[in-house]
Description:
229 residues, DNA polymerase, domain 1, globular, 47% helix, single chain, alpha/beta
Amino acid sequence: MLRAVVFDFDGVIANSEPLHLRAFREVLADAGIALTEQEYYAQYLGYNDVGAFQAVFADRGRRGTDTRIADLVARKAVRMEALARDHSVLFPGAAAAIHRLRAACPLAIASGASRAEILRVLEREQLASAFSVLVASEDTAVSKPAPDPYLRAVALLSEAVGHPLLPSECVAVEDSRWGLESARAAGLRTVAVTHTYPAEALSTAAEVVVPNLDVLTVELLSGIARGPA
């Protein structure tokens, strides 16, 4: 049976990847580094901010000290807040899907975004109370595609409901292969939504691929959760 649903945030609930790309590009430009849209979506989208900056520097043969990376992360966070301040970034159907699923089971978020970025959107959209658990970039030592964010989410959900949950009883909703790999490695069942990548790029890592959040129903997810692990 379906015991919980764990959402990725950027690219699933929030259409914020274009804003992340713009913020990354502007901050990196000040460091003399150009980042193309193709590079971002092909190579860096799956990282949290620290991992993305580290990977960009490494790929260009440049040394990014911890202090330098921390400064870039802080500057990027300020830029993201400014970009997202004045308009909704929710995907169509996101709020309705959250309310629909919350009526059936506990919800969590497992994301590479910062807690402040996630809460800023959820609170503005009056959705924060729908989630029992929030795992953000600062909550695990390593980020996706490692299983740590999803393992942490299931552990916290178990505490929230007062009894152990099996990962296979929980369904992850993702938009990228990095996120799907993380969820699968943690033992969760997987659904991919084609907000960011086409179905053919996700189908090998997801048990079900859906075109949008309108088709994300309790019946669909329950069928996945009760299948063989």
